[in-house]
């Protein structure tokens, strides 16, 4: 019976270690998000799009990336409301159960082609389109 006891002790130790690591990971993710927010604000103030730096002998790129996301303005907006608006604005996206990812992607394309693009009133009254900008790290 001592073999199973030893295994249970090992299991409990691993369980505790995983819990500690998950807690540390959450702390590091919060720290990373806060520092990313600060660096993003500084990039925007200094009008920087990208920096390439050497970190511990490796070249890394830290560049701004903007993502846009569409979502219903409030709970009172129905899928049918958005469907009707899409029929007028962009029929290729109009589906009875529209896809928020497709709508977000289409709106990103519009803004990429024309930064001054304005969401048509039919959609603007129904969906919010949020821009999320953050610094993205690339390199080996």
Describe what you observe in this structure.
There is one protein chain. With 140 residues, the chain is an alpha+beta fold. The chain folds into two domains: 47 residues; 79 residues, no CATH class. Helices cover 53% and strands 24% of the residues. The protein has four helices and three strands. Strands 1-2-3 form a three-stranded antiparallel β-sheet. A hairpin with a 2-residue loop joins strand 1 and strand 2. The chain starts with a helix and ends with a strand.
Question: What portion of residues belong to β-strands?
Answer: 15-25%
Helix content: 40-55%
What gross morphology would you assign? flat
Q: Number of domains in the coordinates?
A: 2
Spans where pLDDT lies below 50 across 5 or more residues: none
Number of helical segments?
Answer: 4
Mean pLDDT, nearest integer? 87
């Amino acid at each position: 019976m001592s073999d199973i006891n030893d295994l249970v002790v090992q299991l409990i130790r691993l369980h505790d270690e995983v819990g500690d690591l998950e807690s540390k990971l959450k702390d590091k993710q919060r720290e990373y998000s806060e520092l990313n927010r600060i660096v993003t604000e500084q990039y925007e103030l200094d009008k920087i799009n990208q920096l390439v730096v050497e970190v511990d002998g490796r070249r890394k790129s830290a560049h701004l990336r903007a993502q846009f996301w569409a979502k219903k303005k409030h709970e009172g907006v129905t899928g049918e409301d958005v469907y009707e608006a899409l029929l007028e604005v962009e029929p290729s996206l109009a589906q009875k159960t529209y896809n928020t990812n497709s709508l977000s992607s289409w709106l990103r394309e519009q803004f990429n082609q024309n930064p001054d693009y304005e969401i048509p009133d039919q959609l603007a009254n129904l969906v919010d389109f949020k821009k999320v900008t953050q610094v993205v790290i690339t390199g080996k």
